[in-house]
Amino acid sequence: MKSKKIAFSIIFMSFVLVFTSCNSKKEEKEVEVEKETKVEVTKEIAEDKVTVLSPYSDIRYFEYSDDIKEKYTEYEYREEDIFTYRFNEETILEGSEDIQKEVMEKGKNPGLGIRSLHEKGITGEGVTVAIIDQNLFPNHPEYSGKIIEYFDSGCGEANNRGSMHGPAVLSLLVGDSMGVAPNSKVYYAAAPSWEADSKYYADSLYWIIEENSKLPIDEKIRVVSVSAAPSGEGSPFEKNLEMWDEAVLAAQEERLLVLDCTNNKSTGFLYPAFFDYENRDDITLSKGGYPASLHRVRDDGIGVPTDFRTVAQEVQEGKPTYQYWGQGGRSWGIPYGAGVCALGWQINPNLTSDEIVDLLFETRYEGEGGSNMINPDAFVEAVEQTLE
C-alpha cells in the first residue's frame, strides 16, 4: 500500500507540473517529490561552497520528515527571493524571521479588491457552500465553527494525522483572515485522492446532494469546490472516472454549481493566474499562468489567483499553523472562484448557477498577455444590477 501511495504521488506531481492541475496529494509524499524542484545554485563563502535556494523553492519543514531541513543560514538563501519560496511557520530563515512573518501576513490578503468588499459587508453571509478534499481537523482557528457537517468517504487516516491540502482549500474559501467568503458555512466531504479512485469523490458528491435535499430553500448548498480532476483527459485518477461525471450531472440536476479541475467546460473553467505581489488589488497587473511559467488563460476560461498566498496548516491534531506558497497550483484557484460566487449569492440568492457563471464570464478583465481574469468588483456590481 505504501509503495502504491508513493508511486501515485509521483505521477500526480508530474500531472500538476505539466498540466497545471490541482494539488490533490498527501503531504508526506508531496514533500518527498517536490523537494526535487529545488534547483540549487552554488556560491563561494571563503573557500567553502554553499548551496543557495533558487526562487520558488519548497522549504516547508515537517517534523516527521527526517530528510528536510528546518533552518537555513543567511548564506543559503537570498532575502529578495523569500516571497517566492514555499515555507511554513516551522521553517527558519536565520536573520530574516521578521521578513518571513511579513510575507506570511501579506499572503493572507486574497487580493483583487476582496477585502474592500468585505468592508462593505459582502462576505458570503447566509450562503452555504461545500468542499470535497482531503481529510482535516475542524478546529483550526481560521475556520473553527464553520463546518456544518463533515463526511469521510474513506480516508482511513490515523486519528491524529490530517492533510496539507484540506486545510488549505478550506481556509482559502472561508478562512477568517484569508478566505474570499469568510462568513459562509460549509459542508465538508473528505476524499482520499491518493487512492486514485474517483468513486470516493462521486460518493462525496452524492452525500452533498443528499444533505442538500434536506435543507430549506434559503439554506441550500450553492457551490461545490473540488480541487481535483477526477475525470477527463490528463486526470491522475485511475479507476471509476465515469462515476464522477455521473455524479456531476446528478448535482447539476439539483441546481448545484460544481467547480473542479477537469476539462469539462461546465465545471473546469477556472485556470491558474496571479496578481502582482506588491499590488495585490491592482487587477491591471494580473497575468495568466504562474510567476515562473507564464501562459495565457484560455478564451473559454477565467484566470483566478493561485500564487503568493498563505493557507492554514494542521497536519497533526492540535498543532494549527500556517504555510505560505510563493507559487501555488490550480487547486488554490477553485475555492477562490467558489468564494466569489458565494459573494454574489449573498447579494442576490435568487440567481441560478448558470446566471452566476454567466456574470463571471461577462465581467472578466483582460489582464497582461490577454488572459481573462476573474474580476470580483465588476462581478459584484453586475449582481447588484440584477436587483434593479
Describe the protein.
By secondary structure, this protein is of the alpha/beta class. It folds into two domains: 63 residues, no CATH class; 272 residues, 3-Layer(aba) Sandwich (Rossmann fold). 30% of the residues lie in helices and 19% in strands. The protein has ten helices and 18 strands. It has a five-stranded parallel beta sheet with strand order 7-8-6-9-10, with helices on both faces. A hairpin with a 5-residue loop joins strand 17 and strand 18. Helix 1 packs across helix 2. The longest helix is centred in the N-terminal third of the chain and has 18 residues. The chain is globular, with a radius of gyration of 20 Å. The termini are far apart.
**H/E element sequence:** HHEEEEEHHEEHEHEHEEEEEEEHHEEH
What's the shape? globular
CATH architecture of the largest domain: 3-Layer(aba) Sandwich
- From the N-terminal CA to the C-terminal CA, the straight-line distance is 58 Å
Features:
globular; 18 strands; 10 helices; alpha/beta; disordered N terminus; 5-stranded parallel β-sheet; 388 residues; 4-stranded mixed β-sheet; Rossmann fold
